C-alpha cells in the first residue's frame, strides 16, 4: 500500500463549485458510475462530516 499524488489541470464548461461537488464531495457515488473498477465504502460514520471513507483503485485499472 502506498500514497500517490497526481495533479492535472483542464478547462471545463462546468462551473467550479459543481465540479468540486462531483469530484470531491460526491466522489463515492460519482466515480463508481464512470469507473466500475473503483470501489468506495464508508468505514465509520454516515457519510457526512467526520466520516471515514475508504477508496480503492485496482492496480490493473486504467484511469485515462
Automatic annotation (TrEMBL):
GO terms for cellular component: cytoplasm; nucleus. SUPFAM superfamilies: Bet v1-like (SSF55961). It comes from the Eukaryota. One of its GO terms (molecular function) is signaling receptor activity. Gene3D superfamilies: 3.30.530.20. GO terms for biological process: abscisic acid-activated signaling pathway. PANTHER family: MAJOR ALLERGEN PRU AR 1-LIKE, OS08G0374000 PROTEIN-RELATED. This is Bet v I/Major latex protein domain-containing protein. It comes from Linum tenue.
Amino acid at each position: 500500500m502506498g500514497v500517490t499524488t497526481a495533479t492535472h489541470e483542464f478547462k471545463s464548461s462546468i462551473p467550479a463549485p459543481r465540479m468540486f461537488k462531483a469530484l470531491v464531495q460526491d466522489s463515492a457515488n460519482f466515480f463508481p458510475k464512470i469507473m466500475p473498477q473503483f470501489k468506495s465504502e464508508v468505514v465509520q460514520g454516515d457519510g457526512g462530516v467526520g466520516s471515514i471513507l475508504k477508496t480503492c483503485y485496482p492496480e490493473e485499472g486504467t484511469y485515462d
